[in-house]
Amino acid sequence: MSEGAASSTAVRRLRRELEALKRSNNSQILVRPAEDNLLEWHFLLHSFPHDSPYSKGCYHGKIIFPAQYPHAPPAIVMMTPSGRLDIGKKLCLSMTDFHPESWNPAWSLETILVGLLSFFMSEEGGYGSVQASPQQRQALAEQSWEVNAASELFRSLFPDFVSPEVPAPAEPAPAEPAPSEPAPAEPEPAQESPMQSSFQSAVESTESPVAADSAASAEREAVEQIPQGSQVPQVAQVAPVAEAEPERPQGAQVAPESDLEAAEEPMECWICRDVTAEPLIQPCRCRGSMSGVHASCVEEWIRIHRRTANTDAPPQCSVCHEPYHGSERMPGVRDFLAHTCQDMGSRCLRTVLLVFMLLAYQVCAMDDNLMLPLRVGFFTFFGLLFVYRVLVLLVSLPAHRLPPAQPLVRFFVSEPTQLALHIAEAFTTLLVMTTWAASGFLDWRFYLPFGVTGAFLAAKLFYRRPSAECCRRCGHGFLFILMLPLILIWGIFVLCRKYRHLVLHPLGPGLHICAAIAVIPMAFALQSNLALLILWGTHALFAVASLVELFCIQKFRWKKGFFWLLLVQVAVMACYTANLCVFPAGVGNQQQSVIIVTGSSFSWLLLLIFLSLKVNWQLCMQQLCAQPKRNMSALWCAEPQSSFEALPNLAASPW
């Protein structure tokens, strides 16, 4: 990520983080920003306890900040082998981008690194953890200096840690300075130049200078807590060093002069850690440095947090757990339906295009009567699309990896939903073409390039010697695909046995699901479309009568629930299957049969969709009210007006 991608809020916050780390007395952590990237910082973990297997080691890692920092969490990657954490992989911690739902913008970089150090010393598992014996970790600790010294980037950022001639913590020497804090008599301007050069140009254009003592007090007073159940329990014990207000005897009067001084002292926003002309608000019950925040900062954080939240609960402060004093502007029904239709429409369009491309490729491969330029042009177009999909998967897999260098970074996809969509489409393409090749519907010459590419992708995922658990899961997935028809039959049997009161109930979805399932084998087995037309016509009449009862009579109590959604999915599959089959006999000739089957099947499908919506209308309205809170947060914050009221003289005003 380039420097231009960093927002002004991220630049100001990172500058304050750097100033706070310079004043820190933590002798086990050393941090240096990268010279060419504002959003990439490198750190060292060293001076471990003497009884630890890491005591002789020095471990290099880096933190990659998102452009939305501090509203979004960073990623942590280790660069030095340790036997505890894997290298080149994003670590799964509660304060990283693996768990954005638990992120708190009040957490400072020092808090994150202290939590990482605590996790490093523990034996907790997770993605990125490595199991090794103490002897292996001791050997890797002794080799860590050579590994670090071999890196040119490490030598430029941490020249004092190229050799292991550093005071060990087991030898107490109070007079000697810690490795991360050079002696005052020997200043090292060469070490500070990488830190300052990354921020100088960006900071001058995005912020005004702020007093250092205000930054120090705000950093100490921040209440930084890790949520319960997180992987780094020790971070939750970080307490504020100084109180927001000095202690006074009971009944003591405060002089007006002190109020004036407190009111004149500028307070900084606890999210961006900056003092600007924008007034501070008090959206919760926090006091001290956690009481003042810019309305734009807290609204931006709520908007991003809504996208990753696990629940639909109203936004609340992660420190005092008080719901924020504000109002959410929810989108209307039209906006929600427009967003939903656009999302579903784009996915359906991608599916239709994929099916069309596969069918066209099969026709061009098997029909020698087509014009040669047409076949060559389509093969070239289809091949380019497949190469693009392969490059995306090669660059982006395995998931949670770091972005590659130019020019491959343009194919990198880190968003889980988009990456899953690429994987599903590529897997579907290979599965369909493999089935065609095995059944004789596709010549093996036209299948071979795609089969070899799929095998190469699979080998690329396994080249790092996957664990037995990974192999076991892959084997289970392969068996699941092979036995999918039997699994579906068994699942239907179990559902019918468990919910027998819904299967045969005329006001439930059971009979409709049975009719939809019956369409699939009939479409494959029958040569005439007459039986299907009779089934669709009879079922359609029953659906029309049901809609009349629901709209006009309203005397019966229909069974609501998830199985109506299952009905729609099975009906869509049945409609798709019937339109793929050819019926040489029955109503109309072969060309007319296609039109008749298509019209009848889609009319039947629409009636079932309307019936399912009407029966579950109340449930749909509840889902309509709940979804905008999580998926439509950008709409209720789209207008640049604050949902909170600013509190004047916040520094001196009591709660």
UniProtKB/TrEMBL annotation:
- Could you tell me which PROSITE patterns the record lists for this protein? UBC_2, ZF_RING_CH
Check the record and name the Pfam families matching this protein: RINGv, UQ_con
Q: Which SMART domains match?
A: RINGv (SM00744), UBCc (SM00212)
Locate the compositionally biased regions of type Low complexity: 207-217, 231-243
- Localization terms from the record: Membrane
Q: Is Transmembrane among the key words of this record? A: yes
Ranges of Polar residues composition bias in the record: 195-206
Q: Which CDD domains would you find in this protein's record?
A: RING_CH-C4HC3_MARCH, UBCc_UBE2J
Protein name (Swiss-Prot/TrEMBL): Uncharacterized protein
Naturally occurring in which organism (per UniProt) = Effrenium voratum
